[in-house]
């Protein structure tokens, strides 16, 4: 169980507003054992975080001269904070329970450190100027990409999936099942992994935890879990980039384009590379790490706890030793995903639901570059990308997934047969569809699509049974459990 966005917002003591609309917030606090120190986050951290999460429209005239800033509506000195990503000064700690800042743009003036008011001529804001950024790297916690181009790559878990067409030796059938593909029925044109390479990928997955422990023998955050050189109870191997979201692994400061199979293979292997994407964590820290409640700063190597949660608070601000083999871009990826999960409020709609914003097409190089540069130079035409829209929110993708799921669930139990139009007329033949029975062939054909067919059912002894097929085909495996709870075996079914 993870925390919802409203539950995460309960920990905010710094809030960001556009007029009366609360668009986000953070929890700024010092390490618990050093209460007299400034907060953990710097001005540069807040500037980067807001730039990752939001797109803001500067004034149309002379936009480059306006800098994003935060204005605290109080007469105190230095109530204006210019969001400079080079400023490593500590971000001010709230003196009261909560500091509520207005997100504004500031035109360089003669006295930027003097108190400012919201109606000063050097201050600009307008309703609706802050929009939620779309980030093509983002996928919901525990979810996977719906891109059909990545469906053929194996992961630890899947639902109603099939393995390679080669049968496994029966002597291994009672052991932990091999990893399998991520969707139920994969068209031949989307099958990219040959059997030999799939077997190698299976070995990589099975050896991952052991390899992580060899390169990282204790929890990187607590320093605990090593028992006389062996892996102690509760010490677990953890992916930094989630294994179910392997296609978001950073490559050359970007992510692989979905149509580039070679780069996708590199991303998959990097995700399962114990030295490039693996650390050991105690079980409770592991769960919170996967829930995006805790992260490690990619530069300072300080632990940040995003919410006020007592099992984690003692690690907030702790400096840790990280494996040198993990690229800094991987730590940055996890940090940014935690920012998107914890900093954005619920008031702003997902960018995919906005119809009045001109979002240009992304360029299509081999790697889609991720630019989190100065937002004042981007304007409203910046390509906002949040894969809640691209991976989990897009309506057309959901519709495709629903239809594919309906067809593939049926095909997992019944092989295809000749089209309905070519079969002998049989009055009201029953057609199993999930837990339902369909009797109208026209409805059946409409459900599965024009290019798909169902296996005809014979009525024998008062029961409908699938007609046996003589032609041998590939085998299939049933769903099996996550990394910690692998199943005893996988049921095989006949396809084709």
TrEMBL record:
Residues 364-375, 483-496 have a biased composition (Basic and acidic residues). Residues 155-164, 173-182 have a biased composition (Low complexity). Residues 219-297 form the HNH nuclease domain. Signal peptide: none annotated. Pfam families: HNH_2. Residues 136-183, 364-390, 456-496 are annotated as: Disordered. This is HNH nuclease domain-containing protein. It comes from the Eukaryota. It comes from Cytospora mali.
